[in-house]
Each structure stands twice: as C-alpha cells, then as structure tokens.
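Forum: Protein Structure Q&A
Topic: Joint prediction for protein chains with partners

I've read a bunch of threads here and the consensus seems to be that you should model interacting components together rather than docking separate models afterwards. I'd like to see that in practice. Below is the full input, 1218 residues plus whatever partners are listed. Could one of the regulars post the assembled result?
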Amino acid sequence: MTQLVYLIPLFPLIGFLINGLGWRTIPKTAAGIIGSLAILASFVVSVGIFFEVNSPSFHGPVLVHLFDFIQTGKLYIPFTFQVDALSTLFLLIITGVGFLIHVYSTSYMHHDEGMVKYFAFLNLFVFSMLLLVLGANYLVMFIGWEGVGLCSYLLIGFWFKNRDYTNAAKKAFVMNRIGDLGFLVGMMMILFNYGTLSYGEFFGKLGTVPGALGENTYNWIAVCLFIGAIGKSAQIPLYTWLPDAMAGPTPVSALIHAATMVTAGIYMIARSSVLYNLAPFTLHIVAIIGLATAIFAATVAIKQYDIKKVLAYSTVSQLGFMFLALGVGAYTTAVFHVMTHAFFKALLFLGSGSVIHAMGGEQDIRLMGGLGKKMRITQITFLIGCLAISGIPGFSGFFSKDEILAATYAHDPILYYMALAAAMMTAFYMFRLYFLTFTGKFRGTHDQEHHLHESPSAMTIPLIVLAILSVVGGYVGLPAVISEHHALASYLSPVVSNAGEHHMAAGTEWLLMGLSSGLSVVMIIYAFTANKVPSFVPNTGLAKLLENKWYVDEIYDAVIVRPLAALSGLLDKFVEKSGIDGIVNGVGKGVRYGSDRIRMLQTGQVGFYIFVMVLGIVALFAITFFGVKL
Amino acid sequence: MKAIIAATILGIVMMFAGLQMKNKSSVVTLAIVLAFLLLGVNIWDLVATPATAPVGYFNNMLRIDRYALWFSTLMTGVTVLYTLLVGKEIQKVGVHVAEYFALIFFILCGVYILSCYNNMLMLFLGIEILSIPQYILAGSDKKNLKSSEASLKYFLMGAFSTGILLMGITLLYGATGSFNIVAYSFLQSDALNPLALGGVIFVMIALGFKVSAAPMHMWTPDVYDGSPTPFTAYMATVVKASAFFAFIRLFQVSFGSISSQWTVVLSVITAATLLIGNLTAVFQQSVKRMLSYSSIAQAGFMLFAVLAVNAVAWQGIIIYAVAYSIATIGIFTVLMKLKDYTYDGFNGLAKKEPLLAFVTTIFLFSLAGIPLTGGFMAKYYVIQAVMVQNQFLWLVIFGLLMAAISVYYYFRVIIAMYFKEGNAELHAPVTQGEKVLLVITCGLVILIGIFPQLLLSWI
Amino acid sequence: MNILMLVATNTPFNYFPVVLQLVVAVGFVVVMMAATHLLGPKRRTKDKLINFESGIPAIGNARQPMGIKYFLVAILFVLFDVEVIFFYPYAVNFKSLGLEGFYAVLLFVAFFFCGFYYIIKKGALEWED
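Posted by a regular:
Agreed with the consensus. Here's the joint model:
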C-alpha cells in the first residue's frame, strides 16, 4: 500500500489538469464533482496507508523513489516520497478536511462564474500541500512550499476585479517570499555543511558531523528554517498577510487556515525536531515568538467586528500556541493541536461562511444577531466549535491546549501564566462572536431578515461531520492523569522526538486543568453579559488601538514600505535613468553598430568568402605554430 | 550497422517509389512510414548491441559503440519528427518529391557513418555522403535563382573544404602511416610531429567548415537563406549535429591526448564564431536569415563541447544536438506557415493563431537558453564541460555575454508576435493535426528542459 | 614502432628546406610580377579590353545557352565509365577474392543496374522531348 503513495498527490493533480484545461467548457456541477472526487480518492488511499503505518508490523519510514530530480556532480537530489507516521497524519488531515471543504464549496461557490477555475486552484493547492508533507527531502518540501504560496496568491486574489483583494493576495505572496528566503538560505546551509537534503541522511549526520560553524551551525540552520516557518505560519512579524487573506472565498480561508498552508511551518519544525533539539537557543526564540503572537493576536481579536477577521486573528493566536508548544520541545503536542485545530477552525470558518451566505455577503457582526432561530444547524455546530477552541473539557481543543499549557508549565511557569492569559482571551472573543451573531435580536435590515435561511445540505453536512470531529478528535491524546496511553504520542514517537520528557505530579496537573477550564467558563459568562447589545460608539484609547490592530500595518507601511518606495524612486530617477539606462543603451548601440559593420563582410561573392577562409586558415596556423601554448 | 544498410536501401526504395507514385501526398506518407521503419531498425540495433563491447566492421573501419548507436537513434527520431512536421511543405518545393526524401535517407546514411567511423577514410566518406545530397537539396527549387545560387555556392565552398580535409588526412597519414583514428594515440609522444599537428589543424578547419564555425562560416547565411526552407531546417539541425558528433569523436578519441596543442586555436575559433554569429544576427530583417546566423551562434556553443575533452562533453553534445534540433525544426515549421519571412511578417500572430505564437515562444526560449527548456540544459551541460576542464573561463564568460545578446534577436520575434499590431498572413490555415504535432514538439522541448537525463539513459 | 621512433627524432628544423623552397617559389613569383609591372611600358587603350576574334569584330555573346542534355549524357557517361573501371582490379584479383569477392561484385552490379534502370525510367537518356 505504501508504494501507492504517489497516487495521493496524483489525483488532485489530475483534477487540477482536467478543471484547469477545460475551465471554459466543463459545467460547474461537473467541476465540483471532479474536484471533490479527486480529493476523496486521495483520502481513501491515505486511510489505507494510515492503517498500514499504524500497524505494529510497520518499521521505520518507507521511501518511495519516483525519479532522479537533480544529478550533477556531487549533488544528487532524488524526487522521493517519505511515508511515516508524521506525513501520514498530515495526509489524513489535508485530504480529510480538504474533502469536506471541497464538498462545502460545491454549494457555496455555485453562484460564482469562475467556479471551474476555483476548483482547479483548490486541487492544485491540495496537490502542493501533499507534495510538501510527502517529500523525503527539503527540496521536494520546498517545491510544495512554493506551490502552496502560489495557490494562496491565486485563491486570495480569486475575485481579482476588486483592487483590495488583489492587494491582499500580493501581500500574502510577498510576506511568504520573505519567509521563503529564510528557508532557502537554511537549505543551502544544510547542503553546504552536510552535502544532502534528504531527511534521513541529514538527521543521521547531524550529531556526528560538525558543521562549518561548529555548534552554532545547528542554530543558524534552525533559525533560517524558522524564518521560513514564520512567513508561512503567520507569526510575528510576518503575520499581517493572514488577516488580509480573508479576501478570498470563505472556504479558501478554511483551507488555508485549518488544514493546509499555515500548518506547513509547524510540520517543517516537527519534521526537523532532531535538528531543533540540538539548537536549544533557537527553540527558546520559537517559544517566545509563539507566545508573543498568541497574546498579541488574541488582543486584536477582542475588538474586531468582521466575523472573518475575528476568526483570522484567532488562527494567528492558535498558531502562536502551536509554536509555543514547539518551542518548549513538545513537538507531538504541537502536531496534536494542529489536528484538533484543523477540525474546529475549519468548522468555524465554514460556519461563518454559512452565516455570510445567509446574510447575503454581510460580515459585520454588529449587524447580525439572533441568527440561531433561523439557522439551527449552523448555530449548534458553531457553538461546538467555540467550545472546542475555548478549551472546555470534553471537547477536542481542551485536550490539546491543556497539553500545551502543561508542557509550558513544566518548562517555565512564567510562560505558562502568559499563555493562560491568551487562552482566557480566546474564550472571551470567541463567545463574544458567538453571542453577537446567534443570540439576541436581529439588527440587520428588513430585507436581510427576510432572506435568512439555513444553508443547503452540501454545506451543513460538512459542518456536522466537522462538529463531530471537533468533539471526539481530542480523545486520541488523553492527559496523563486520565490515561497512561497517549495514542497520538506513541503513534508519532518513531518520527518526532520530544525534547526532555516532563513528569509532573497528578495533583499539579489536575490543578492546571481545573484552572484553565474554570477561567474559560468565567470568561464565557463575562462575554455573555458584556455583549448583549453591541455598541456603535467609536472606540477610544486602548480599545481603539486594538480595533486598529495596534496599527501594525500602518507602522510597517511607514517604517518599511514608504522608505523603500522613496529609495527606489530615488534610484529610479538618478541611478537607473541616467546611469544604468545609459550603460545598457550604450551596450545595445555598440552591439548594433558592430552588427552593422560585420554584416558588410557578407558580400555574396564566393571568391571573397574563400579568401576570408584562407586568411583565417593562415591565421589559425600562425596561432598553432607560433602562438601561445597551454 | 543495420541502420546504415537500411538507410541506403530505403533511400533507393524511395527513389523507385517516385517512379511509380504519381500522387505527392502518398509519397509523403510513404516517406513517413519508411522513416518510422528506419527508427525501428535503429532501436533494434541499439537493443541488440551489448553495452560493454563495441563491435568493429570492415576491418575495424567502423566501430559501433553505445554512443554511436544512441546518437544515430536520436537523430533518426528527430528526422521522424521532421518528416511529420515538414512533409507537407516538402511537397510544395518541386516535382521530385520522392527524390527529396531519398536524399534525406542518404543523408541519414552519412549521419550513421559519421557516428561510428573509426578510420579517416570513413570520415571522409561520411562527410561526402552527408554533403552531396545537401548540394542537391539546396538547389531543389530550380525555378528560384536564389536556390540555384545557394546550391552552387555550397558546392564550390564544400569542394574547397573537402580539399582541406583530404590535405589534413594526408598529413596525418604521412606522419603516422595509419588511417585508424585510435592508432593516433601515438601523438602522446612529447616531440610532436609538425606534420601531424598541421594535419590536425587542417581537419579541424574542414570540420569547422561543415559546422559553420568562423571564419569558415561565410557560406552559411547565403546557403541557408537561399535553400528551400524545409531543407534549411534539416541542414541546420540533423546535419550540423552529426557533423559535430564526428568532430567531437575525432578530437576526443584520437587527438584528446594532445589537446593542449589545439585547444587554443579552437578557443579562438569558438570565440570568433560566437561573436560573428550573435552580432550579425542582430541586424537581420528576415527571420530566416536571422535563424541562419543563430545557427552559427549555436555552433559556437556546441564547440564548447569539442573544446572540453571529458565525459561531460559527450553528454553535452548529445543534449545540445537534440534540444537545438527540435527547437529549430519547430521554429522553421512555424516560419514555413507564414507568407512573409521578415520580422514584420510575425506581427500580430498571437491574436490570429495564439497556439502557434505560444509554441514559437517556447522554441525561441529554448534557443535563447531560458530555464525549463531544453536549450537551457544543453547550454548548462556544455558550459559545465568546459568548467570541469578548468580552462577557458574567459570563453565561458564571453559565451554568456553572447547568449545575452542572442536574447535580443530571439525576443524580437516574440515582441512582434505579441506586442505589435499587424495581420500575420498564413499560407493556409493550420490544421488540427499540425497543432497537435507542434504541441508535442513543444512538450519535448520542455521535457528535455526538466529531465535532460532522459537523453542520456542509453549510454 | 619504427614510425614512432622516426617521429620522435623529428624537429621543426628538419623542415627548414621546405620553408626555404616555399620562400623561393613565392618570392620568384612576386619578384617577377612586380618587375614586369614596374618595368614594362603601359598603354591603356579601349581596344585592349574587347574580345579578340581573329581580327574581325565580335558578334553577340560567347555564352550561348545550350541544351542541358549534352551535359546530362556526358556526365552519365563519365559516371558509368568510372564505375566500370572498378571491374579491372576485380579481374586481376578474381581468383584470390573467391566467392566472397564475387558476391561483393554482384552486389555492386546490382546497385549499378538500379541506377541505370532509374535514369532510363526518369527519361534522362531520351533525346527528344
């Protein structure tokens, strides 16, 4: 079965080719079916592979060699897929959640003209992501990495007629490219120091072969890779593209935020856990950046009014939690949170899509309210999602987030308290969103109220499935105090090695769990009382600061974008116009002049031709017999 | 060996078919079938010959090894592609359609001999079998004065270069008492016989003439421009590529050990070829004439492979030969569809025939050496061959500068197609089958650009 | 091996006589041409530039078009004549070459006849159109 792994990315690729080449002729419904079936087929193969990998008889990673990619001199990079516990888990998340999002899209996008193109891009996106997790070396990962970046650009700017949307797409692309540069430099350092990009070979050499910079080599490589992860997974300071990425269709947001793209950074660091364990300094940075992002994004989310913006900042915040987990060396925990987050965040986004669908495109939560009466399924599933993300016991988010908090506490209690604060804010802003949207009285126009309806089943069924997963998804990783056996951790243990096992007293752990879930409940109640009616009064002070996202976009604009633009304007005026253009045009003129002269040699006379040839022969003989010798 | 016999017999079959078949298009069909047959024979030869031991024929005058067989097969494959793409145009050249194809088969016979010769006499024979049909093909458009002129010029200058080749062979024989190219390894001895060195230079000049290296290039623009376009396409590709293979075979197998004696001269030739080919192409108004100068410029790059005496050079020449041939045949195919061969004739092609314009763009990318096309990999390999040799860094830099200039005149066509207003006139609407073939050709160019190893899989 | 030794003792200086001869030959020609050019009297008249036709004025162009068939037949004659010459060496070595040589010549003759048949069929030898 594992040898069939190449089928997994193949199906979406075929789907992309069919829809992409036939976007003018294929009917919309057929495009949706083709796109969804391609992902379903991949999912089926993934499940088959998962059972094989999960069986006790499976030993070590299986490498599936497809072809030799680059082979010049000493450099040899094969195009190989690696099947092991980590990649298989990601396969399941990507294809499983991806499939649900595809099904949802068939209904959500049905009114859109570019639906066929949309499904082509969606399939290409999934294909790139699969390539990213399946590659057995950093280069294949990088191909997927870039492919994901490209597809996000295409999908965020899907409604390219709107200027703001294309700008958002551009922003996402540029931010990602900054991170990619870090990844690229890291890859080159690996290649330079270890002569290989294959995971197996590289990790094998890590402990034994010291790099050119001695011990620091590990840190340098790890930092460079981490910069790549910052870009892709939207951490401080490169996070600003993610909230803007809301410009794309809502299912795309679900795909980018939940199942794919942003988790790539987590995957990469978890994949390189051997390296990061040797680079404790970098791990420290990872933890701090993760925590800062978690808190920062949570504060912003509190004062957002756009339903998708709130969810976007909550994603940034949750990603911060994952990086915090990575930073304290709890790689399996981070992967665990990736998984549960994939379920409930996809659920929340698709739910918000359902709301926007019903509201006829309105996204401001101040103009909603009381939607629960008309949209029962959406309301209940959304509630489950909110409970899960807030970490209420019994729901999946509780288990993974609690594990992160516990690991952080074991690492450093100060970090723990800060993370706890971020978790509290999560509960607050999620329920603020929930109460403003689904409870109370409807505050929109009369037309909208009339138009309110539950979404069709193609949209609600994925919601229900995801809601179920958001509840039960956490039970693969029960806390140590409840169960000795942590299914996910033992499944991942052959691939990912956590840094330093921590054991804490059962009492402490109970206490931590009680503290976090108790505080969450308090925050929910506070959110209920504080948000019965939204205020339309303009915010002042800190609230205004939060509403405007700490003015980070403006600061970036003032500090980086404007000076750069000014500098490039200056260069354009002086260096480019007079200096470089002068040189370039001069060279061009010189070439044309020379061409005009040499052209004259071609007289058309055979006698002259032979004469030139004889002269040439004489000259060549002169060089041979009297000229320089090597 | 089977292929040499088959090419001869198929050529004769083609000749006699011309006596019987009155319908031109059925002649073309027959030619395509026979070309496929020849490809089959080549593949049979390739599979049947063991990889390790080269086989000698005719008292070891021919020595068939893996390189020779694989190169022959590739060139036959390119010829098959050529007959498919250009067959219809050949019909229009004149009345003796069957003879034209017969001559192409005879040229292929020369190609096979040149790929496996082991003896100077066989080199001479191969060169002549390769050249004489070309003299006829160049003049096949009898009513066109330019065609006759091209034929006569080519013949006169070809005869001159043949004289030089014979002179070189004579000097080498005089110095060594042997025609066998492997026996020339005697040249390792320190005190080099000036007779032998003179012979080496003469042979280099004669082969340089065949591959249109400066200063022996003067015939190229006139002949390529004057000949009927379908035959120009063949002369500039398969014929030139196999002349290069003969070149590299001789200069690596037998003169490789004294490379220090002749590389300086060859580097001068290479630099001159690059300079003249690229610079002169800039000012041309006719795309056909520009392509003939570009073929000189491309020859300059292929000379890199001859200059570098190592294993990478062999790989480089094979990749270059195929990548360059396919792209050039493709672009000539498009050119033949147009009424006007000047740059202006391409104006507005993208609006009228988007597919045609797109494939032309890819072919031009390949010729200019843009990554992801075969031309890039080809240039990469030959330059790598020189870099491995660790000499002539100046030549590599010079070559890259010249490649930059080449972008100018290749992209002029693209600019004309996409950005200029105009009404590019075609002879006849492009049929569906031709489009499919062009797309396949285009796909091959990109395939080579991504997996150049495919072309080295049999050696 | 002896050739090898011979070669090894050769130096460029051994070719000095050749160079000398070249210099003398070229020098002689150059000196003679220069001498006649400088010493000889020069009279430029128009008559010197026209064709000399036994004293009478030239009529028309000497380059008259003429039937291609003459050339065709002449070239074909030369071609076949030269090919037939190959039989002489075969006749001399008829016995020693044996059966294999016989087959080779048979093949040669077969090709030969192919060509002959071809030109007949093409009508190259038909004098009248």
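The first strand of chain B starts at residue 55 and ends at 57.
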